[in-house]
Amino acid sequence: MPHIELTYSANLEETIEIGQLCDALRRACIESDVAPVAGIRVRAFKCDHYSIADGDTKHGYIDISIRLREGRSDDVKQSLTAGLFQTAEQFLASAFEEHSIALSMETRDIDASLSPKTGSIRRFLN
After folding, report:
1. Residue 13 belongs to a domain with what CATH number?
2. How many domains, in total, are found in the chain?
3. Which residues, 6 or more positions from 8, have their beta carbon under 8 angstroms from its beta carbon?
4. Which CA distances in Å does 76 have to 7, 33, 105?
């Protein structure tokens, strides 16, 4: 794994291609070589109800959460976080010029003993 989850304010749907951002993060994660391709998951959730800063509806946000199975060094986690954050910043650069957007990211470990996994994706990869 990692599991990468985006939560974003609904007002950004007309401004940002969220699906393309998910794909850019997936590709960056593959390039980081931190995890096997079969374990990478990127998903996004629109938030319909939110209040930001001074309450003006022009403000938007994207919060990115990265969950990794425990055991990776701090250097590896920091490198992955920095690379994914840079990918998001670059993807959003033009939107930042035109819109009020907050971008945040957090990386957390998953306790493997409390997170069972199974699946068949590896059998279907090219």
Report:
1. 3.30.429.10
2. 1
3. 16, 18, 44, 45, 46, 47, 60, 61, 62, 63
4. 24, 10, 16
Structural domain harbouring 30: 3-124
Q: Return phi, psi of residue 85, to 5°.
A: -65, -45
**Digitized pLDDT (tens) for each residue of the chain, 126 residues in all:** 799 999 999 999 999 999 999 999 999 999 999 988 999 999 999 999 999 999 999 999 999 999 998 889 999 999 999 999 999 999 999 999 999 999 999 999 988 888 888 889 888 887
Q: How far is CA 72 from CA 80, 100, 126, in A?
A: 11, 35, 27
Residue 62 tokens, joined: 């994207």
pTM listed for this prediction: 0.91
